[in-house]
Each structure stands twice: as C-alpha cells, then as structure tokens.
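The records we work with from here on pair a chain with its fold. Here is one such record, which you should read through line by line:
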Amino acid sequence: MPWYKQTHWQIIIGLVLGLIYGIFAASNGLGNFTANWITPFGTIFINSLKLIAVPLVLGSLITGVASLSDVSKLGRIGGKTLAIYIGTTALAISIGLVLANVIQPGKAIPADVRDGLMATYSANVSDRQASAQVVGERGPLQILVDMVPSNIFGAASDNRNMLQIVFFAIFFGIGLLQVPEKRAKPLLDFFHGVNDVTIRLVDLIMLMAPLGVFALIADMITTVSDGDLGKLMGLLAALSVYCFTVILGLAIHTFGVYPLLLRFFTKLNPLRFFKGIGKAQLVAFSTSSSGATLPVTMECCEENIGVSEEVSSFVLPLGATINMDGTAL
C-alpha cells in the first residue's frame, strides 16, 4: 500500500494542514468561519469514537470473560494490571517532580502572562479544588462504591462511567459462565456480533480521522489565539520552557519507561510496539480524549501487536479510566 494511503500518514498530513490553516485563520480573522464550518467536523469525529466506546467494551469484555475456562485467570490479569498501572503512574509522578524542580519552568513565564493565565483559568481551578476537597472527604471505600452502577443504562449514557461499564461487563460475563452452555450461547453469539460490528465501525470512523484531526487542530489554534496570531505566538514564547519540560517528561516516560517494561515483561520488540500503536498515539494526541481513543487503541493492540481480545478488553478500558500517566506527569 502506498504511504499516502496509510491511515497514520493521513492523520499526520491532516495534523500539519490543520496547523497551517489554523495559523492562516488566526492571521486573517477567520475564527468565526472556522467555528461554524470547520470545528463541527472535529466534534463529529470525537463524538463518533465516543459513541462506539461503550458497545465495544461491553461486547469484547463480556465475550472475553465468558470465554475463560478458569475465572481465577481474570483475577491474575487484574492483579498484574493494577500493579503495572500503579507502578507506571508512580514513575510518571516522579519524572514530573524531578523535571519541575530541576528546570523550574514557572520562573520563565513573565509576570503579566502569569497573571493573565491565572485570571483566565481561576474559575476552572476553583472548580477542581472544590472537587478535590469533596473527594478528600469521602471514605476510603468510596472508590468501590463508585465502581458499582445503580443503573447500567444510566452508566452507559456517559463515557466517564467507563469503570462501571467494565464492572458490569465482568459481572455479566461471570454470570454467563454459571448457566448451562445451551442457554448462554444465544447471548454470547449476540455479544460476539456486537463486538465484530463495532470493530468494523472503528474502521469506518477512522476514514474520517484526517479530516477530524485537521478540524480539531485548526479549532484549537483559532480558539487559543482569539483571532490574534501575535497573542498566540507570545503565549507560546512565554510557555516555551514549560512546553519543553512537559515534552521532555513525556519523551522520558514513553521512550525510557515503556521499552524497559517491554524488555523485562514481554518479548515484544519496542520498534514493533511503537509502530503498532502509532495510529492510537496520533488520535490521542489530536483529540486529548482517552475515551475517544479507546476503540482505536483496542484495534491497534489486537490487530498490530497481537494482544488477545480477552486481555485487551479488560486492560485497556480500565487503563483509559484510571491510568493517566500523562496527567500524573
């Protein structure tokens, strides 16, 4: 297949063109045009990926659990998964703290820019502080309470409740193992069909990825610049040291920690790993959404890296919910 027909190259082209158009639009006062005629395509792309996340997790996880001959295997997978997630998150936090204390990016931001950013995002910070205070006042077992949905349809209506979807799917899959195979087979066939159809929908949605990425990048630039390219360039210059610190931390975590994990826990070649997840990484970078990227990540892991469906359907939705290494860093 020619390189220009490969999805990841098309996404990169869309990203670059979105960057070029965004700069052009910011320079020529095309913010309203972009918001009305370009941005909706990015929103449609993200919503389409989020749309299929829940049926994909339900279909793949229920069939994966129900196909296990030994339920205790699920416990072993869960234990290893949590250990890896806690370990990588701790490493990400450590990398972030070391870089922040060594480089001290905040000192490079001019006082006027710092005051402007604080004024702009003060309401958001207050909301987050209030949310953190509420979480801090909860009991130690509240996380277990939050995992169990009172209404599965209500939980499925919001991708932020993915942990509840994972719990229900595992619980339902274990229930299928407890009934005679003859009675469970129709339900298993149904969820196998849901899983197969959803995977095909991922392929169809990814045909729109270049346009969606183009729209998202263009919208981000015009929104941040507020129709003034000089403002955007000034902000980037002021935050250059901070951006460098973040990128350096992400690079250390991605190209340092991940290859070490692959070396000690798997036989997978790091080059094959990075090539296999390239499409998912590009979608994650463009959308900044774990939920929207989840279907693409599952497809990449199963088709490119060779991860079994029963493992990917359990590990990846859980990771998209609780394993936020980038945020921790």
Remarks:
- The mean pLDDT is 85.
